[in-house]
Amino acid sequence: MKIIRQKKDLYKLINRINPISFIPTMGGLHKGHEILIKKAKKKNKNALVSIFVNPKQFNSKNDFKTYPRNFNNDVKILKNLRVKYLYCPKYKDIFSFKTRNKIYLHSFSKRLCGKYRPGHFKGVLNVVNRFLELLKPKYLFLGKKDFQQLTLIKQHIKKNKINTTVVSCKTVRDQSSLPFSTRNFNLKKHDKILASKVFKFLKKEKAYIKSKKIKKINLSNVKKKILNIGVKKIDYIEVINLDNLNKAKKYSENFNIFSAFYVGKVRLIDNF
Ligand code: PAF
Question: What's the pLDDT score for residue 18?
Fold first, then answer.
């Protein structure tokens, strides 16, 4: 695997290896990333993974500092998956050039995580746009666990007529329904058990809404139950219609339950 650290080396490479399948990451690789990479490799053998912990998308310095990092393990995983290219840019290489595109923040950015993490999505779009301008990938691989991020990136690409196709990949879970996430590395064993209880409960709740044909979805009891399970802080539990991004009201809509809550100091999100 070729590890690229300098922008000049990236420029030399880019023209040679186009079309590129691009998998942006912040490291701390796990089974969810592996699915993205495997899918990318199937489309096109020139898979390029980036590892860059983007400070602009963290709305707390402490969150940035404690975000799990494990470069040596990441390299091992990427080599095992036979990834050809790994780009690990310096902050300056990403943020010092003038961009062609303007960041487009769709109004969906104000909801869910946007409400609780001011500036987060602007930071995500800023870095993703810069990667797209540098790499000009044919395909961009993103996970459905971060549905809001996925949607906002798609909207930005569409608005700016960027010639990259977004490929979305399913959420991968362990046997206890816990979705794989880099933040899970900061969870203790009992935190994991608690989180998986919540996710299992929410999954059942969705099945209940569907099977009982609930016409007016109301999640206030659901929040109480989650607090009873032992969660100390909930940012949101919401049902969102995946087609129009509005709050879903009725069982027959194509909806997911979106959640963000804290287990200890770790903030977890999911949707299904
Ligand atoms: O999902 C992530 O890991 C990040 O938000 C991304 C897309 C790599 C941008 O920093």
Answer: 87
